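Re: the request from the purification team.
They wanted to know what the chain is likely to look like in 3D before they choose a buffer screen. I agreed to run a prediction and write the result into the notebook, where they can find it.
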Amino acid sequence: MVESAHEQSVNSVVSEDGTRISYLTTGSGPDVIVVPGVLSVARGYGRFAEALGTGFTVHTIERRGRGESGPQRADHGVEADCADLRAVQDKTGAGLVVGHSYGGFVTLEAARRNSGLRKVAVYEPGLSVNGSMPTGWMGAYEKYLAQGKPFDAFVEFVRELGPESARRIPRWMFRRMMPLFMNAPERDVVIAQLPQNLVEHRQYVRYDSTHEHYSEIGAEVLLIDGGRDRRAWTASDQELLASVIPQCERATIPDLDHFGIDKGDPERVAGIVREFFLRGL
């Protein structure tokens, strides 16, 4: 995991159910909230926050179950994530939000109910339409977690949802190759988030085929996606989103994949987001 070279201040707020939510702040200018994806922590978006922070004050949420934020509750739903975003918004006054993957899903759900959000940028937000989000991995994944076999659980997840190159690798070989894919600190972060990953992917299933309610979003939306390692169903879902959201524009970066915003080329993605946010300010 590549992190920002600059220090970010640590702040916190109490969400509506009493859970403490931590967030990292950097930069100066109009306030922006960043909502990370699954298997991620706030500091993993350090380069993106630093690049966007040249013109904005960037607050990256440490979502529940991570870092200094409180745990997910037993009945956790995306509604709690939306409430956490709202708590940070109320404290910072931010009217701009960036969401990635599950964080993009949270951002879109929040924008339906939150007239205080003026513009949101989402990088490949999670979505399930007519069962498009794969679920076949969940049973074995949950079993391996219960057995204390996190690496086996992770293999099930990546073989189902990862890039084509990963899906072709036999399970036993993939497990042995994990140290080559991720360094020890990043591996520790991923393993620590495996239970939350399952909970959050089940929210996609719970909200399957509800995309039409994004017609309620009043904010301007920038829908960003990468062109590399993209599955056909993902591209189709992004097109559906763009057709439903009233004020939506798209940006495709051909040579970046799903992790372009945090691991691929965060500075370039930040530049696209900055241009979108500055327009009309």
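For the purification team: Confidence is low (pLDDT under 50) at residues 1-5.
Please add any questions underneath this entry.
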